[in-house]
């Protein structure tokens, strides 16, 4: 069963329907559902629950059945590359069209979004994602929020770090004290936010 609050699922859906990592404007989203922006805001804050007809409309927007929207479903997430959680590594083509034979892993409870999976190399974020674990990245979610984890493209190299604001920086989150914070001297592109970590059983 999915454990995300309904309000978060609705926010994620609005984000997935938007462009360039920004959510669909609230008024436009509300129009698609035949309701008001104020009502949608109450749903997103879990101050009110959508009625049955609104839930069905939300599920249709997410291209899911109502049970899938409410409780999640297994989807085949493409495992497309590796990402360094230590030093920067050369970027691979994680933003392009994937071949049909790409390996996929079954992941449940993701809701709406554009997802791909990466294997983690390194230990600079091992407090949440150990070396060789798998991270699930939502390419639709690129809005930077303090203390959240993202895959970044810096120049032609990628890294997986925790974003911290004021000043903007990319921090390690590791049991290894040798890792240092990155203060990018050039523009940083956000590839997507990490929404799930999968650690293989030993």
3D architecture notes:
22% of the residues lie in helices and 28% in strands. It is an alpha+beta fold and 202 residues long. Strands 1, 2, 3, 4, 5, 6, 7, 8 and 9 form a nine-stranded mixed beta sheet that branches.
The sequence of SSEs as H and E is HHHHHEEEEEEEEE
Radius of gyration: 18 Å
Give the overall shape, derived from the CA principal axes.
globular
Give the percentage of residues in beta strands: 25-35%
Number of DSSP strands?
9
Helix content: 10-25%
Question: Spans with pLDDT under 50 lasting ≥5 residues?
Answer: none
Largest sheet: 9 strands, mixed
Structural class: alpha+beta
CA-CA gap between termini: 24 Å
Provide mean pLDDT, rounded. 84
Count up the helices.
5
Task: Give a quick summary of the entry.
The chain has 202 residues and is α+β, with helices and mostly antiparallel strands. Helix content is 22%, strand content 28%.
Topology, pairings included?
Layout: H1 6-17, H2 26-33, H3 37-44, H4 52-61, H5 66-71, E1 75-84, E2 89-90, E3 104-107, E4 115-121, E5 134-138, E6 149-154, E7 157-164, E8 169-171, E9 188-198
Parallel strand pairs: 1-4
Antiparallel strand pairs: 1-3, 2-7, 4-5, 5-9, 6-7, 6-9, 7-8
Structural features:
single chain, 202 residues, alpha+beta, 9-stranded mixed β-sheet, 5 helices, 9 strands, 28% strand, globular
